[in-house]
Amino acid sequence: MTISEDEAAQWWATAVSHIEPGSIELRDRPIQQLIGEVGFVDIIWLLLRGDLPSSRQSALLEAALVAGVDHGPQAPSIAAARMAATCGVGLNNAIATGVNMLGDAHGGAGQQCVEMLTDVRTLHEAGHTWDAAAREVMDDWQRRSRYLPGFGHRFHPRDPRRDPLLALVDQAVTDGIVAGDHLRAAQAVESALARRRGGARPVPMNIDGATAVIYAELGFPPPLARGLFVLSRSVGILAHAWEETGQGRRNKGPLPRSVLPARLPPQQQA
Q: Could you tell me the domains of the chain?
């Protein structure tokens, strides 16, 4: 069967970009009109959404992206990238190794939190109070998992990124930049969770929860909350992989060579 030129062109039809000899357009905007005029965060918005954000929308998105760039070698994605960088692969491969670690358990909580907050908002719109909606959705999520996405942190008693991010959202709500429903949903979950735990250690919102609020308030669907986190964390992955290439190690493993893994007791062996 012969494929026509038009069929081949339609196979790759896209609204994201249009490329011809001597011409590059992003969402129908010539690249020469964007270079030097539009920031990188605005380009992310443009390619994903088809238009340019307002300055306040851009600033809010940038704050979320800045907050998620790095969390040190304690993060599996960073550790994996640093190890990969010592194994004779290129910098791009080291970055890909780190990015590929960002799955449901490490990197997916933002997406899951947007889904959860959207469920809370939907129940509220159906007539539930914010508190009742939060408790019902929490019960549903905790029947499936012991972890509530976007809340609590294994390392920080209170995530230092939470307060500045939520303060920016709160101001954006006051100024009419975003509606605030996802912020109220997150605050309702946080309050309901604190009451449920009583005097136990509180489980405040973490970076995934705070950025989920921002992504949802800005209108990004849940899967893009993960995609945007991947873009953000890629910056830290790149920096760590690059630093590791200059330290002269070869085949770096997860433990110093002087430390050997413990022997697994027989009763724990498969």
A: 109-225 (1.10.230.10)
Q: What is the pLDDT of residues 120-150, one digit of tens each?
A: 999 999 999 999 999 999 999 888 888 889 8
Q: Which among 142-146, 165-169, 245-249, 256-260 has the top mean pLDDT? A: 165-169
Produce one character per residue of 23-43: b if its CB has 16 or more CB atoms within 10 Å, e if not.
eebbbebeeeebeeebeebbb
Task: Give pTM, 2 decimals.
Answer: 0.92
Is residue 15 packed enough to be buried (19+ CB in 10 Å), middle (13-18) or exposed (0-12)?
exposed
- Residue pLDDT, tens place only, 70-88: 998 989 999 999 999 999 9
CA torsion angle 129 134 140 142 (round to 10): -160
CA-only gyration radius of the chain, Å: 22
CA distance readout (Å), 226 to 11, 93, 153, 208, 221: 27, 20, 18, 10, 10
